Amino acid sequence: MKSEKDNPKVQIPVKNIKIHQPTQVEQYKPRDQIYVRKVTGFFQQLRRKMNFFFLAMFALLPWLQFNGHQALLFDISEQRFTLWGLTLWPQDLTLLAWLFILSAFLLFFVTTFLGRVWCGYLCPQTVWTFIFIWFEEKIEGSANQRKKLDSQPLTVNKFWRKAFKHFCWLMFSLLTSLTFVGYFVPVKEVFIDFFTFNTSFAVASTVWFFALCTYGNAGWMREIMCLHMCPYARFQSAMFDKDTFTVSYDYNRGENRGPRSRKQDPKVLGLGDCIDCNLCVQVCPTGIDIRNGLQYECINCGACVDACDGVMERMKYDKGLIRYTTEHELEGKKVHLVRSKLIGYAVVLLVMVSLLSMEVINRKPVSLDIIRDRTELAKENFNGEIENVYTLKILNKSQIDNKYRLSVRGIENTKWHGEQEVLVKAASVYTLPMSISVDPYELDGYMTDITFVVELVSDEDQVSLEHETRFFNKR
């Protein structure tokens, strides 16, 4: 009798296993909504006061007037930026470049010292998110009430609360957008024309675009902007070191975690100071657990610090289980407030402030552009003189009307054909067509360097500007 081993037709039994393929919904599961719990404390009071101050500045600055003009106006269509008594033109873009570079290094300096406090206290995304959460709290209730409301079927109560909340969001977003556009278009025109339906299509579309962006970012996306879209969250770690102050959990003091009554001694139970109440997670606007260590999602708003301090106070423990501290301090090492990286940023800031100040001090309040007649470099007029035609563009960068005197030097006995004293309106350009003629015997060659001079006609200020060009002779 043949065995099964000798029979080549015998097969090993195979069991078919159905492999579960994740559905599209499972592969791309949407995020869980974060219901931020309200918390009070020192840092939240500080954040709210700072938010109110800078929000008030944002709303009021476009309405301020200086010498009869809007004090702060970035008029892109006219290529003119007005900053109180200072008007910047395309020729002054180096000033804006210095200002942006200075702001960037100031952000680096603050981040190296205090971590991501810009995100937690001043970033518009954070400020507007907390404002939208405030609307939620006033209309839908606390975090637990909002969570319960969302789990309920649609009722009249749920419908009117949701509708009113979104209406408030949209109206605040529209007000924000109108104010923002008022920095680039005269703010009075923006508000009056928009609500009287007289605004242009470009302005109206811009207002609605930024309103919808504000509504979407602060109402729906919220922490997504901070976690996945903002580049600052990604490169901030390059500025951190072990002496940077960040919101941190004191692991050595808090572990082991566990609930207990206020009368029980945690040391007897083998527990640390953390009672594992999860309040630090419930108040976090990005939904992280700070007890898991330093995370790029943390925006250093201090909400978990205030929540934990409140719990520690009720438990009669020392505050500061979660606090602004450094990695060196948590390790029991000395904290170095003054260090090479911080000094480097400070030196760069000082140099940039000096260069920017010099640029502003040496800036001339008048500019001159010279355009030659391209059709004919030089011609002989009826007096037998050689004549060159120019177009002078005199730019008054100041906020007041000024009279300027024009002259030329470099050639003896020249004749000026055109106005030599012109009145230029504030923050405007005056175009002056003119020509210069000279006896050919005064010219040494085919081309002679000359200098146009613009002088302010004033008994108080002495302003003079020179611009070199060339005078051509006929061949």
TrEMBL record:
Signal peptide: none annotated. The keyword Ligase does not apply. Keywords: 4Fe-4S, Electron transport, Iron, Iron-sulfur, Membrane, Metal-binding, Transmembrane, Transmembrane helix, Transport. PROSITE patterns: 4FE4S_FER_1, 4FE4S_FER_2. The keyword Iron-sulfur applies. The chain crosses the membrane at residues 52-73, 93-114, 167-185, 191-215, 342-361. InterPro entries: 4Fe4S_Fe-S-bd, 4Fe4S_Fe_S_CS, Cyt_c_oxidase_cbb3_FixG, Electron_Trans/Redox, FixG_C, Ig-like_fold. Residues 264-293 form the 4Fe-4S ferredoxin-type domain. SUPFAM superfamilies: 4Fe-4S ferredoxins. NCBIfam families: ccoG_rdxA_fixG. PANTHER family: FERREDOXIN-TYPE PROTEIN NAPH. This is Cytochrome c oxidase accessory protein CcoG. It comes from Thalassotalea insulae. The gene is ccoG.
